[in-house]
Design a protein that fits this description.
It contains ten helices and five strands; from the N terminus they run H-E-H-E-H-E-H-E-H-H-H-H-E-H-H. The chain has helices at 4-11, 26-32, 53-66, 87-99, 112-117, 130-140, 150-153, 160-172, 190-197, 201-204; strands at residues 15-20, 42-47, 76-82, 103-109, 186-187. The protein has a five-stranded mixed β-sheet, sandwiched between helices. It is globular and about 45 Å long.
């Protein structure tokens, strides 16, 4: 006999959870636009009180337990981090990626603005800091700020495919054996975005 709780758990929609750096609203605002009524999944996005990758992954694991997430049900936990061209952060990333298999660590190097730049240019510039990457995005999007709802302000809903293709094209140019910290510009955000859009791919064709 199946318990009612277990039966309900089996029948629920997959849960996609994003844990983002808490310094600004950029990532949370961005992912909130994927929260469609017709989604065949539940999407939740949380900021982290800290930007340290260790604390972010710990928060992700805590939420994983609180929501009783289960990969067998299609649940996915994403931790979106800026590598910041930082060697120490990279070493922590390598350790945590191996240790916490249930958390998909999504990296941008130097930062999330690198990903956003692909909506506006095929080749974001090589920069020497996250601030420089943000400055370059400001050149592409006059008036950009880290609390700006860039998807709404720049009408990016129809341009996700363009950004995905550009980022993937750039990433294929890197030696697969190279360190992520040495890839500049670099982003993996296209992977969760592709997953969020996948149920609607046939409808949009």
């Amino acid at each position: 006999m199946v318990r009612r709780k277990d039966k309900a758990k089996r029948q629920r929609e997959p849960l996609y959870v994003f844990v983002c750096e808490g310094r600004n609203e950029t990532e949370k605002l961005y992912f909130s636009h994927f929260n469609r009524r017709e989604n065949p999944y539940v999407l939740k996005c949380f900021g982290s009180e800290a930007t340290d990758i260790g604390n972010m992954v710990r928060k992700a694991m805590r939420l994983y337990g609180e929501y009783e997430m289960d990969p067998a049900l299609g649940d996915k936990m994403f931790c979106v981090i800026d590598m910041d061209l930082n060697e120490e952060k990279y070493e922590k990333y390598k350790l945590l990626k191996t240790k916490h298999k249930n958390v998909v660590i999504v990296v941008s190097n130097p930062c999330f603005e690198t990903w956003l730049s692909y909506y506006f240019t095929e080749s974001p510039k090589v920069v020497n800091s996250s601030q420089k990457a943000k400055d370059e995005l400001k050149n592409l999007v006059p008036g950009y700020s880290e609390n700006m709802d860039i998807v709404k302000e720049c009408d990016l809903e129809s341009k996700h495919g363009v950004a995905i293709n550009r980022s993937e094209k750039k990433n294929r140019r890197y030696n697969p054996d190279s360190r992520i910290i040495d890839r500049n510009p670099y982003s993996e955000v296209q992977d969760p975005v592709t997953a969020l859009l996948a149920p609607f791919a046939d409808k949009d064709e």
